[in-house]
Amino acid sequence: MDQVVEEVETVKKEWEETYKQTEEHIKSVHEYGKSGTIRLIAEEKSSLPRLNGLAQDGMNLLQSLQFKLDLLAPQLPSDDQVEKIQSLAQSWKTQIQSLRLNLRNANLQAKANMRKAAQEERELLLGGGEESTVRRRNLQTKAGMTSAAESITESLRRTRQLMVQEVERSASTLMTVGKYLSMCMNDIKSCHEVFIIRLLYVASAR
Fold this sequence. Notes:
The protein has helices at 3-31, 41-72, 79-125, 130-205. By secondary structure, it is mainly α. The protein is elongated. It starts with a helix and ends with a helix.
């Protein structure tokens, strides 16, 4: 199998896995706060950014894979393959846009879920009694622990995003250099042909 064809198949496989994972993260955002038991509000607020970060990471990786497929398409051995893969890359672009819209809608639903959970939590805390006291203590403890964990996760997410962007920039630079070298080789070939013609002309003149 041609090396470029193999690379295309690898990209397609990674796309399928990443797309599925990203859909699951978006679904988790949409379902956030719908559990049968009432969750702590502080825990809800600090965990939602983590889920959004995972979904954003997935979409960034999908965008990088779509960019890579665009670069590979013109290198395929046949015109039919080139056209097919370019069409696939365009469909991936549309799917990424759809995922972004789904994530926005999922966040709207998550906020509605959290508002409902907050109302239930307030009613329970204002009810008085031992259960309310225990809940207030748990709220303070878990809020601090979750906040620290989320800060670390967000930092790692930003680092990964920067790495993805750097890979895309490097790939674009390599493609530009490749085109420049190709032009230089053509110029050298033309100069070489002119030189040979002149030599033959001089030789025949003698």
